[in-house]
Amino acid sequence: MTTRLTATSLLSRTLRRGATSRIPPRPFAPLGLDSSAGAPRSQSRPSYSTASGDPGQEPPPGMDSPIKVVSHLGNGGGAGSGEGGGAAIDAGKSARRPLSLWPGMYHSPVTNALWEARSSIFERMMDAGNAADATDAGEQRAPTELLVKTPAQSRTSIVYKFATDDILREQYRDPWNEVRIGKLLEDLDALAGTIAVKHCSDEDSTTRPLLVVTASVDKMELKKPIRVDTDLKIAGAVTYVGRSSIDIQIEVTQVDQDGDNQSDPFALTANFTFVARDSKTGKSAPVNRLSPETEREKQLFSEREARDKMRKRKREEQKGGLANGIHKLRAEAERLNALLAEGRVFSDLPALADRDSILLKDSRLENSLVCQPQQRNLHGRIFGGFLMHRAFELAFSTAYAFVGQRPCFLEVDHVDFLKPVDVGDFLRFKSCVLYTQLDNPEQPLVNVEVVAHVTRPELRKSEISNTFHFTFTVCSDLLKKGLKIRNVVPSTEEEARRILERMEAEGLCN
């Protein structure tokens, strides 16, 4: 008993001594460092590397900022690291950081590395604000003095060393030895957010840090399967900015297995739109201007500017035009009746219904979850990439059950993030096969809709947070063996309207 009490007393004294000891603040670590998910703790200051390899200097602002990934215990210099030099970041810094700034530890090593880089900007700005308060210099000003930045200043990349890092490869491998698309969607959102924060930051930390949230994702098309046995790289930069919006293009590249660099290395291209808000008031905030330099950057800027103007023009057109509205309603009513004709046969004369068709409601799947703190982003909301991840996996399962064979992912259509999701929210994902396109017998398409509902049972309230649309096909070899995909028909007017809306968005109702 005496020995046990002595040991307990010693442990208590040790814990009290550790709790009262002060740890000096961590120096700012700019983007481009080795962000480690599991590196050993040490108290050494990380070193930087430039293009010439000279340690101790920050990379020039115009350089691509590669972020290293370490997926296993080690010194960060072995397999699994991304491009760029420099020693591993001191993992002990996590003990000095508020809990709200390290949710990435619950995600993949890539997401963790990206969030480490992003949070370093916030820490630097918040430290500068605290220092200003301590010297009676007043709090940081609102970001009204805008800078002009180039796309090169926000360009950031990260490399997956799948060829040499067994642990990283296993985390991303699906049952068919390809990359899990859902996890990749998380990383794309994390990279885009890191780039947005980098563009919004200033040079001397005199303005308050802006909060950036995902507003929408444009259509992402998978150009070729992404293998899990070959290194993969994702890179992106800002392509266009509005008053408070930031457009970012992300490119996923993977060289062919035979090493042929002449073939198209792009596996996927995605465009994200973020909106900036003042971290103190929560209101919309202006962002730094963009000055494209290269011909490619100027072309992307023009394309995104034209898209932005067209979107605004469509919103204006929807507000007016009574005659056009009446004509559109009549045409829509005719299409609704045509879509519902087969569904009425299923309801009224089921024995005579087309055996090659199925009711939309019979393709539904659903899952639900309570959002946990480990799924939040740096701002305390549920990570947008996590929502895309869960929606994709439900859509994949829905297509799998519908086709009867493993589906092949092709694209995710435009996604609007309508309502933020908070920790503790009861989230329900509901999916269905919305319609199929069977005109091309060599590549039939299965369009799956997933709707995310934020449900609050205490208030008897449910709201739509996001609507996702995924497109799948099947392997051509299975089609040659006689595999057939059934047609989907609606049984209610609401289902028919949803189908028409998606067909119009895809340009299939002309």
Secondary-structure element pattern, one letter each: HEEHEHEHHEEEEEEHHEEHEEEEEHEH
Radius of gyration over all CA atoms, rounded = 26 Å
Helix residue percentage: 25-40%
Strand content: 15-25%
| Arithmetic mean of pLDDT | 75
In whole angstroms, the N-to-C terminal distance is 85 Å
The major sheet is characterized as: 14 strands, mixed
Supply the number of helical segments: 10
What's the assembly state of these chains?
single chain
Q: Which consecutive residue ranges, at least 5 long each, have pLDDT under 50?
A: 1-59, 72-105, 132-138
Shape: globular
Number of DSSP-assigned strands: 18
What structural class do you assign from the helix and strand content?
alpha+beta
Biased composition (Basic and acidic residues): 292-308
Region (Disordered): 1-91, 282-321
Domain HotDog ACOT-type: 158-280, 361-478
Biased composition (Low complexity): 1-22
How would you describe what is shown here?
With 510 residues, this protein is α+β, with helices and mostly antiparallel strands. Helix content is 33%, strand content 23%. It has helices spanning 2-20, 109-134, 151-154, 166-172, 181-200, 295-319, 322-348, 384-403, 476-480, 493-505, and strands at 34-36, 65-70, 148-149, 156-160, 210-217, 220-222, 232-241, 245-253, 266-278, 289-290, 357-359, 365-370, 407-412, 415-416, 426-437, 445-456, 461-474, 487-489. The strands form three sheets. Strands 1, 2, 4, 5, 6, 7, 8, 9, 12, 13, 14, 15, 16 and 17 form a 14-stranded mixed sheet that branches. The protein has a two-stranded parallel sheet with strand order 3-10. The N and C termini lie far apart (85 Å). Belongs to the acyl coenzyme A hydrolase family. This is HotDog ACOT-type domain-containing protein. Pfam families: 4HBT.
